[in-house]
Structure to design on (155 residues):
């Protein structure tokens, strides 16, 4: 619930619903819809350093959802971005503060994997070489993604 409260403060955002630690939101005109979650700490509490994972709904029969991450800390130049979803591993691309799939096929594979997994973790390293590991529970993620897709299906 705190996700929606903090994210709803942004201009013209409306909640489409909350499922476990994932929320589906709709914003702007023309509307843009997405499922979003904050990372969790090892003790199960929400990591409030500013990181988030989102799955953006994209219109059109051939355009599937698109994954996007904002890192909890800036990564070092050249540090690899690796997403583990269950047993699967994916190489991501990005800049110092964000990460995304390199192509549509990887987006599709990630979304399919997160529908069947319980946890995903994005790992990289900061400028000092310390590990950054942003983990997300996936309970509620499939429903939030579906709600985001439906929330913007009509435009």
């Amino acid at each position: 619930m705190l996700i929606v409260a903090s994210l709803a403060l942004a201009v013209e955002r409306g909640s489409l619903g909350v499922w476990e630690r994932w929320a589906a939101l709709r914003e702007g005109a023309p509307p843009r819809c997405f499922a979003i979650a904050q990372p969790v700490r090892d003790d199960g509490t929400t990591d409030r350093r500013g990181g988030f994972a989102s799955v953006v709904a994209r219109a059109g029969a051939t355009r599937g959802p698109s994954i996007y991450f904002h890192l909890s800390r800036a990564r070092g130049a050249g540090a690899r971005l690796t997403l583990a979803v269950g047993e699967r591993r994916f190489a991501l691309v990005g800049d110092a503060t964000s990460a995304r799939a390199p192509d549509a096929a990887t987006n599709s594979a990630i979304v399919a994997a997160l529908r069947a997994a319980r946890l995903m973790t994005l790992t990289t390293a900061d400028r000092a070489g310390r590990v950054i590991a942003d983990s997300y529970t996936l309970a509620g993620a499939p429903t939030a993604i579906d709600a985001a897709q439906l929330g913007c299906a009509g435009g």
